[in-house]
């Protein structure tokens, strides 16, 4: 004999069967065919292809300005050069010769016109090659001799009040000068460091140096420009890693600097900071 729970289970099962049969006979389970707009389909396809091409283009290695003299196997391959073209370039460089133009690059490597047109806009040659006559306008003013060197007071010993006596210098600027001086152990190394004091115009600096000058300069351990590493160069004010790289690249192209003044030809070196940078550099005689 069935228990009450078993009878209830059988009843629910029969009820479920009846419901399913009713749904099967009275509900239309067929689905309508999906309509496709045949005219719009090509436009959608083109849009998808366009997005796919854009994504592939985005994945391509980006090219930044570079000196073609330093192309290696990997760089040449990325640029689309063949192994033979890369080998011709490397063989030429092994002779310690330098490429100085896009046309010379093609003459040496024999790359196609199409590849040259594609990569030559990214060539970065030193400024002294692109414009040998380039001259840098310095912003430093000459020191009018209102006082002789003997008569001038030592800039490393004057007070805020004494500097304030200069026409055009108030409390703010005079305190800024002293604060800059105190930030350097030993004070100013040269009058040109006044150009590093924010807010001083060349005219005001000229007025200051008419009355004061550095007589007890701080000692700077200078770095040999022809032996300096990037890590050493970046310790110098106004030289970051990019500029340090340009300085070393120029040094390699010149096979060493002959004079400090040749720094003027370095790409991106700030013309109004050259004299300050030069305070930290020297060239050993045996390296000249």
Automatic annotation (TrEMBL):
Gene3D superfamilies in the cross-refs: Photosystem II 12 kDa extrinsic protein
Protein name: Helix-hairpin-helix domain-containing protein
GO biological process, one term: protein secretion by the type II secretion system
Cross-referenced Pfam families: HHH_3 (PF12836)
GO cellular component: type II protein secretion system complex
InterPro entries, A to Z: Endo/Exo/Phosphatase_dom_1, RuvA_2-like
């Amino acid at each position: 004999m069935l228990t009450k729970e078993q009878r209830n289970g059988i009843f629910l099962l029969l009820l479920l069967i009846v419901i399913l049969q009713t749904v099967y006979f009275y509900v239309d389970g067929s689905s309508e065919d999906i309509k496709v707009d045949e005219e719009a389909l090509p436009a959608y396809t083109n849009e998808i292809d366009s997005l796919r091409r854009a994504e592939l283009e985005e994945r391509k290695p980006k090219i930044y300005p570079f000196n073609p003299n330093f192309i290696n196997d990997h760089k040449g391959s990325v640029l689309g050069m063949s192994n033979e073209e890369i080998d011709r370039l490397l063989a030429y460089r092994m002779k310690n010769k330098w490429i100085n133009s896009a046309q010379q690059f093609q003459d040496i490597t024999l790359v196609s016109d199409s590849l040259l047109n594609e990569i030559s806009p990214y060539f970065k040659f030193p400024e002294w090659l692109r414009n040998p006559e380039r001259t840098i306008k310095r912003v430093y003013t000459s020191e009018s001799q209102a006082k002789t060197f003997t008569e001038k007071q030592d800039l490393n010993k004057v007070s805020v009040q004494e500097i304030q006596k200069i026409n055009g210098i108030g409390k703010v600027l005079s305190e800024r000068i002293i604060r800059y001086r105190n930030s350097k152990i030993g004070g100013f190394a040269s009058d040109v460091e006044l150009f590093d004091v924010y807010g001083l115009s060349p005219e005001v600096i000229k007025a200051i140096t008419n009355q004061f000058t550095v007589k007890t300069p701080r000692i700077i351990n200078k770095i040999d420009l022809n032996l300096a590493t990037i890590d050493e160069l970046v310790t110098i004010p106004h030289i970051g890693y990019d500029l340090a790289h340009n300085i070393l690249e120029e040094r390699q192209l010149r096979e060493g600097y002959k004079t400090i003044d040749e720094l003027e030809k370095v790409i991106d070196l700030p013309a109004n900071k050259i004299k300050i940078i030069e305070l930290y550099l020297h060239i050993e005689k045996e390296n000249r």
